[in-house]
Specification:
With 299 residues, this protein is of the alpha/beta class. The protein is built from eleven helices and nine strands.
């Protein structure tokens, strides 16, 4: 088993521990009514997108998500939340440094021995979810589980404890043959699951060099459906919009949806798919092409 596959399998336990950590975390979490910006790079940015939508769905206040390099300095926020597994990502540290003293900041990281500890006002260290893999899997979902649990409940979204139960099945169940053997995958989501769709597509590109795309589910019929056909998959996180399954069938594609499962658990299936496709191509998912654990730019 690859290191990446082994880390993927630990996510149910990581999420349960994240929920416990969120319940006992001190000051620093966004408070109801605050206007919040959430930021990160790569996978962390996609988790920020998911959390921002969850927080607004919970009625806790306006929440925006930005790639750290694109943060709008002219906008005013009550709090900035940064997700950074390594704690060393240049764009994240630069942003935290720019807003320090003006806006309270919270960072989520896996490594307590990194510069983010001194750059953010508050830090949630999720070191039990750290990874040896370059490709992020369990840290990203654990960070989202932590923030999700801290919301105290979102209408229409399962508690993290129930999501972890669904994750147990996602770790163990065989991948559908039509999905694992496809040549192209389009990931779709609505609301908070759009961030998961973006992350699923990135995981497949990182680990397997696969042809993937990701869109809001209702945008699928506004162009992206043109790519779907035999041996190509439309993968929906969460509820399938009315009529979309018929459209995928009409053009000869394969629809994958686990509507009864928590969408975060379905992301585990996409992570497993990325490993399976990589291995089928003869790639090593633990050593993805052109990637490093953290992007540290020369100043």
């Amino acid at each position: 088993m690859s290191r990446t596959a082994a880390e993927i399998a630990t996510q149910p336990a990581c999420w349960r521990r994240a929920a416990e950590a969120a319940a006992s975390f001190g000051e620093g979490l966004p408070q109801p009514g605050e206007r919040v910006a959430v930021t990160g790079c790569g996978t962390s940015w996609f988790m920020a997108i998911a959390y921002a939508a969850l927080r607004e769905a919970a009625g806790q206040g306006e929440t925006d998500a930005y790639a750290s390099s694109e943060f709008p300095s002219s906008r005013s926020y009550d709090r900035v939340v940064a997700i950074t597994r390594s704690g060393t990502t240049t764009e994240v540290l630069d942003l935290l440094g720019r807003v320090r003293g003006r806006v309270p900041t919270l960072a989520l990281t896996a490594d307590p021995k990194t510069p983010v500890m001194d750059t953010a006002d508050a830090v949630a260290v999720l070191d039990w979810a750290d990874e040896e893999s370059v490709v992020q899997t369990r840290f990203a979902t654990t960070a989202l589980a932590f923030l999700r649990a801290a919301l105290g409940g979102v209408p229409g979204v399962k508690p993290v404890a129930e999501a972890a139960e669904d994750a147990e099945a996602a770790v163990a169940d065989p991948l559908p043959e039509a999905v694992a053997g496809a040549e192209q995958w389009t990931f779709l989501g609505r609301g908070w699951t759009y961030g998961l769709a973006l992350e699923a597509g990135l995981k497949m590109r990182e680990a397997a060099g696969a042809w993937t795309e990701a869109y809001p589910a209702m945008e699928y019929r506004h162009g992206p459906i043109a790519i779907t056909g035999p041996n190509r998959v439309a993968w929906v996180f969460g509820a399938v919009p009315e009529g979309l399954a018929d459209e995928v069938k009409r053009v000869g594609g394969t629809l994958h949806a686990q509507e009864s499962a928590d969408p975060m658990a379905d992301l585990i299936r996409a992570q497993r798919l990325a490993v399976a496709v990589a291995e089928a191509k003869g790639y090593d998912p633990d050593r993805p092409r052109n990637l490093t654990r953290s992007v540290i730019l020369t100043q």
